[in-house]
Amino acid sequence: MSEEIGKFTIHLEQEEDYAFRVKFDLKKAPDIIMDEPPPLGERNGPNASRMLAAAAANCLSASLMFCLAKEDVPTHNVKTEATCTMIRNEKKRIRVGRLDVRITAGEELLASRKLDRCLTLFEDFCVVTASIREGIPVGVEVVNETGELLHKVE
Asked: Does domain 48-153 have CATH number 2.60.120.200?
């Protein structure tokens, strides 16, 4: 049985057409504009699918970094790429069909004595990806700076 541990609320206000200003519940977080691609919108900001991909990529990157570094977090040591595959379902509705996230971890992180253990754990602690996976396949790869595959989940 799940237990509620908190809530947050964000606010959206329509700017024009399909563009919305997103206001977060954080004092220092700037507002962002989200917009749909043509023909509906003008792509003046990311749409919801792009934000979903960014959220999963960010969460996975932070989760891996936390497991490997915790107290002494190196800067500029992770680069992450998220690819979102859009599909049409049987009703011809557009859906997110799959997310693939590729994390390139720098040598400073990969030198951690906890690497093997963290590669088996970090995905389970990513709130967003674990939630998304209940309905959307998410593939994850971790590679080093030369592209050598260190971890892969389909």
From this structure: no
Reference 139, options 40, 70, 53; nearest CA is: 53
**pTM listed for this prediction:** 0.88
- The b/e string for 133-147 (b: 16+ C-beta within 10 A; e otherwise) is beebebebbbbeeee
In this predicted structure, the answer to whether residue 41 has a pLDDT above a threshold of 70 is yes
Is residue 34 scored above 90 in pLDDT? yes
Backbone CA torsion sign across 127, 132, 134, 137? negative
Structure letter (DSSP) for residue 137:
-
Cβ neighbors of 94 (< 8 A, separation 6 or more) are 86, 87, 88
CA distances from 97 to 35, 53, 61, 87 (A): 20, 12, 21, 5
